[in-house]
Design the sequence.
């Protein structure tokens, strides 16, 4: 194959299929039909002389050679997009972009509603995809353009990453509604539900507890706060979580308490890759989000 003969539009199809792992999902992202995506993939396979993907259940799995080469290709595509964006002024009202946001499930309710509202008001032609990024992969995924921005608990950032404080949220405690007060002693003696998508390791509030030397008994670990709140409503377990995650979960079966321990607020940060510092689209998105979120969290529920 002569590289100059390659139809570059096919690389957009490759990128979408690699990220989504499914022909129908890739078609949705590209605003194409699944048959058009399949036809484009067939053309790309023919031009490259490589199968690229293999069927795996209901999805498509990259071949070993595809898996080896794809990160470099996606990184180059990301750099090309950045270059093209810098040539023109970004007009959110006219833009037709898809922003990729990396955010843990637990923090989605804090940022996603606000970001969706901002896009609807100021950039109606843009779309947003929220996806979970493992902290150990954050730098790589930002560098390769797999995500444009990331929201996570603030931690020391690698040199190639930029970090901007986004917001802080105080920790509160949910209990069954018949518990009318909560002392430090009762908190430390109680059984606790913790929430994490991972099977082991520290949870969201763990660093704040460790900073004051408090360990808890945590016999239950689940993947979502909604499930954890239901467990608390039917037991004597406690659930510690940020206030703006707790308030939407309140029902007559639950009580919300200030945390009886002097825990520091959870610091949330906004991350992006240094190479995209001057990207006008992402600069607009960052500034808009940073200006809107503190106002949202300061307003009464």
Sequence:
């Amino acid at each position: 194959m002569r590289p100059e003969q390659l139809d570059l539009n096919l690389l957009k199809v490759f990128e979408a299929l690699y990220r989504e792992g499914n022909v129908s999902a890739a078609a949705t992202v590209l605003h194409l039909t699944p048959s058009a995506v399949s036809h484009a993939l067939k053309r790309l396979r023919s031009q490259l002389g490589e199968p690229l993907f293999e069927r795996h259940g209901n999805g498509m799995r990259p071949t070993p050679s595809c898996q080896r080469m794809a990160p470099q290709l996606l990184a180059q595509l990301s750099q090309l997009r950045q270059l093209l964006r810098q040539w023109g002024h970004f007009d959110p009202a006219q833009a037709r972009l898809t922003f990729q946001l990396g955010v843990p499930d637990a923090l989605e309710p804090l940022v996603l509603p606000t970001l969706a509202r901002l896009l609807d008001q100021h950039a109606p032609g843009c779309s947003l995809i929220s996806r979970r990024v493992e902290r150990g992969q954050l730098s790589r995924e930002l560098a390769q353009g797999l995500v444009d921005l990331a929201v996570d608990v603030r931690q020391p950032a690698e040199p190639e990453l930029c970090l901007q404080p986004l917001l802080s949220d105080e920790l509160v405690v949910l209990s069954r509604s018949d518990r009318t007060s909560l002392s430090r002693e009762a908190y430390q003696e109680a059984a606790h539900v913790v929430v994490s998508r991972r099977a082991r390791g520290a949870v969201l509030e763990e660093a704040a507890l460790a900073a004051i030397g408090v360990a808890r008994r945590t016999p239950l670990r689940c993947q979502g706060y909604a499930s954890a709140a239901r467990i608390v409503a039917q037991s004597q377990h406690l659930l510690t979580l940020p206030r703006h995650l707790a308030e939407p979960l309140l029902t007559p079966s639950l009580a919300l308490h200030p945390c009886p321990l002097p825990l520091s607020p959870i610091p949330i940060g906004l991350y992006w890759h240094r190479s995209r510092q001057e990207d006008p689209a992402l600069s607009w998105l960052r500034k808009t989000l940073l200006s809107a979120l503190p106002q949202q969290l300061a307003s009464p529920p």
Summary: The mean pLDDT is 88.
